[in-house]
Design brief:
The chain has a domain at 1-109: Methane Monooxygenase Hydroxylase, Chain G, domain 1, CATH 1.20.58. The chain has 5 helices and no strands. Helices cover 75% and strands 0% of the residues. It has helices at residues 9-32, 38-68, 75-106, 139-239, 256-274.
Length: 275
């Protein structure tokens, strides 16, 4: 199929490389019938598989560039380029089918290489990697593919329901935990208010006790001074009993009668001494 579609240089180069691979695949499969040794047939089939992988990569690159240039191309040109891509996909798919036929005839199922795998990190093929087109499938294949797709969709819906249920359960548990924590915070706040009130009362009580202690100290100091004064007066009275400054102090001056008797005795002594 000659290409008469206007292409950019990049698309034209990719298209030429794909066509070269198609010619190489055609020649390679024609040689397969001429090879009698099964080992050589297996080696030839591996080489053809590598070429098909490279062809698949080029078609993906063609599709990527086509999407990037979609806004720059008129709708008619874009449609023609897209048809060209579909042709390359369909052509490659025919060689894939032919490879599977030779592989089955060789009984090489244990060494089968998957051509269109997405790598270890992907579990589902992308839309652009779905090489086998609906136009190349029979009605039974379409029905089987539809049933398989529906089964996968149902399984995905079931998984989504399980995720939603787990999310709801987690949300309920989180809300319950938040409610408990809110109540606990309220109790802690009330306890802090009680502690603050108790500390305030304790501070007032300490101040009152301090004032009472200060008052008691003043009274004790005054009593100490009074006692010291009394002791000093007693000492002075004992040392100098004739001190007139303390004679009239209550409880310290001698009785008046005793004093008069003493004066009389002294007078009598003086009289007798004069005689």
């Amino acid at each position: 199929m000659a290409s008469d579609v206007p292409m950019s240089p990049e698309l034209e180069q990719i298209d030429g490389e794909v066509q070269d691979i198609f010619r190489a695949l055609q020649n390679g499969f024609q040689k397969m019938d001429k090879i009698k040794d099964s080992n050589r047939q297996a080696k030839q089939l591996e080489d053809l598989t590598a070429k098909m992988k490279e062809c698949k990569r080029l078609i993906k690159e063609f599709d990527r560039i086509l999407k990037d240039e979609e806004s720059n191309n008129p709708p008619e040109v874009h449609k023609q380029l897209n048809d060209r891509k579909q042709y390359m996909i369909k052509e490659l798919n025919s060689y894939v089918t032919l490879r599977k036929t030779y592989q089955s005839s060789l009984g090489n199922n244990n060494k089968r290489v998957e051509l269109f795998d997405m790598g270890a990190g992907s579990s589902e093929p992308a839309a652009e990697d779905n090489i086998q087109m609906a136009s190349a499938m029979s009605n039974q294949q379409l029905m089987d593919a539809g049933r398989e797709q529906m089964t996968q969709t149902d399984q995905a819906i079931d998984r989504s329901k399980m995720v939603v249920m787990q999310t709801i359960e987690t949300g309920t548990q989180t809300a319950s935990a938040l409610t408990q924590q809110t109540e606990q915070m309220k109790r802690i706040d009330n306890e802090l208010d009680s502690v603050h009130f108790s500390l305030k009362k304790a501070s007032q009580l300490v101040k009152e006790i301090g004032r009472q202690v200060a008052t008691d100290k003043c009274i004790m100091a005054l009593l100490f001074l009074i006692v010291c004064g009394v002791i000093a007066i007693i000492v002075v009275k004992i040392v100098n009993p004739r001190n007139k400054n303390i004679r009239d102090i209550p409880g310290l001056a001698p009785p008046a009668q005793n004093f008069q008797i003493s004066n009389r005795r002294l007078l009598s002594v003086e009289i007798f001494s004069g005689l």
